[in-house]
Each structure stands twice: as C-alpha cells, then as structure tokens.
Specification:
Shape: globular
Largest sheet: 5 strands, mixed
Distance between the termini: 36 Å
Number of domains: 3
Number of helices: 8
Radius of gyration: 22 Å
Strand order of the largest sheet: 3-2-1-4-5
Order of helices and strands: EEEEHEEEHEEEHHEHEHHH
Length: about 300
C-alpha cells in the first residue's frame, strides 16, 4: 500500500512516496518543486513512481495550489486516489488542539506537532515539547506532556526580516552577513539580529513551558532554514529534516485504521489484499478488526 505525502509551503511543494502509510515505512522517492513549477510533476518526477493507494497532504498555500496538484494527479495514468488534505481538528493522533478556533491553526503546525510528539513517545517517557518550524515564517509551539497544544508564536523568518529592513530604512542594502557575538558591520548586525530574535522567542516559550509543566521540555526544530538556527540556540535541539512528513505518516496510519475498523472483517481483509498490504502491521490490524467485530456481535446476541 504505497503512500504519497505532500507538503505545500509558502514557496515550495515537497513530496515523498512511502512503501506504506505508517511511521517507519521505507521511503521510495522524494522531491521538491517551487510553487511556480507544480505543473512539472506529472511529466517529470512523478512519471516513474508506482501508483499510490493513499495520499494525504498538508498545505498552507492557497486553494489554487491544491487545485493545481489535483490536476497533476488527474494526469497520472493508473493513479486512482482521492486527494486528501489535513484540516486541523479538536484532536487527532494523541494531540489536542488548544487554539481558540482550531480550524484557524495552520495545517503545517498541526501536522508537525503530531509528528514531533510521536517521535518523543517512541523514546519512552512523555515530555513537554517545543516544536519550531523555521521557513518563510517561524512558528514556535508548545505541547505539555499529555499532548495538549498550549499555544505558540508566529514571527517573520530571516528573509522577511531583512526585506522589511531593506525596504523600510535607508542604507541597509547589504550582503548577507554572519552570526557573531558582537557584530561590527551592518551585514553581520542584520543577520545576527534576525537570528537572535528567533532564538529569543524560542527561549521564552521554553521557559514558559518549563514553568507550566515543571519538567524540562524536549525541543525539535524543522523547516528549510532550521540548520541556520541550531548553532545559536540556547537549548539542545534535535533537527529533523521531514517532520511534516512524519506527522502525515502518523495521521495516515490512524485514519487507515479507523477506516478499516468501520468495515466488516471480510471487507477489511479484502481491502488489504487488493492493496498488497501483507506486512505484520496489516495482519495485526485485520486480527484486531475481527476481534472487535466478533465482540460487538456477541454483545448484541
């Protein structure tokens, strides 16, 4: 059961094809395109892929970008899948949404938190968690040890900060500088200022979370520009390349299990067989569905 994960950001579309829709599944292929080049997917990198049996995507870009992806999928011969897109909800995959209006939370933030919490739980004891996404914009989100999303920050990324200063002030059109403790030129001052602004926001959320939970939070950082921040952080951080994809795998596994659980055992087994799902996980899931169905039938009798 191959699985296609798609992450549409503010500037690029990233995709990955996995052997199955569950965490730890083998990665078959991956790639990225700038949003202006989405139309290259069908005749380009997707042309040699096996047909996926499930697709789940996360998008912060416009509805037009999702529509263009749908058009690319429609062009793929043998691809008979319904494009599904994440919509933040009150709770999913062990994470509860604390936003005042859950639907207004960015889908990328929601998926990243789900992926990060799964990563922490796989190591044993649950801990509070700071999740940082560094891209065109920067988000800093906090979860307690029970998976409750407490809230977070949104601030401009490096590029937006520098652009705002260049357009709003005179004489600041300078090359990108380096991050230093005490900058002595304008280029270094701008680059260091933006970096330390982001690091300071992360540190503040870390402190708030520690005071709230009375436990040292774990810290995970992701996003295309995450590597720029790691040397300047005041706390130990784990840098994760594809955190959104990890979250999509967790959500896909849960959604697939829920869908199969709603079927009869015979239909669930047939569904898995037609998709070629013969893994131990698939066999266990079929057995679980059968047991639940049998118990339900017994109780009705």
């Amino acid at each position: 059961m191959t699985f296609l994960a798609i992450d549409i950001g503010n500037t690029r579309l990233k995709w990955a094809m996995y052997e199955a829709p569950h965490p730890g599944a083998a990665l078959l292929a991956q790639g990225a395109e700038f949003l202006e080049q989405i139309e290259r997917l069908a005749e380009g990198p997707w042309s040699s892929l096996p047909a996926p049996t499930m697709m789940l995507g996360c998008a912060v870009a416009s509805e037009a970008a999702r529509k263009r992806v749908h058009e690319q999928i429609d062009q793929m011969l043998g691809w008979d899948i319904a494009a599904q897109w994440v919509v933040p909800s009150a709770a999913e995959a062990g994470v509860r949404n604390g936003y005042d209006q859950p639907l207004r939370l960015g889908a990328d933030r929601w998926v990243a938190m789900i992926g990060a919490r799964k990563r922490i739980l796989q190591r044993g004891t649950a801990r509070p968690l700071v999740v940082v996404m560094v891209g065109t914009a920067v988000t800093v989100d906090a979860l307690d040890e029970h998976g409750q999303f407490l809230g977070g920050l949104i601030l401009p990324g490096h590029g937006i900060m520098l652009h705002a200063l260049e357009t709003g002030t005179a004489g600041l059109h300078v090359p990108t500088g380096a991050v230093t403790d005490f900058p002595t030129n304008t280029s270094d001052a701008l680059t260091s200022g933006g970096t330390y602004a982001i690091a300071g926001a992360v540190e503040r959320i870390y402190q708030h979370l520690y005071l709230r939970c009375h436990m040292e939070p774990a810290c995970i950082m992701a996003g295309g520009a995450g590597w720029k921040m790691v040397p300047s952080m005041t706390r130990p951080f784990e840098l994760v390349d594809n955190l959104v994809f990890e979250g999509l795998l967790v959500m896909a596994e849960q959604r697939q299990a829920q869908r199969l659980a709603a079927l009869t055992p015979t239909a669930a087994a047939a569904q898995q067989a037609s998709a070629g799902q013969t893994s131990p996980e698939g066999a266990s899931l079929t057995a679980a569905v059968s047991a639940v169905s049998a118990l339900s039938h017994f109780s009705k009798g």
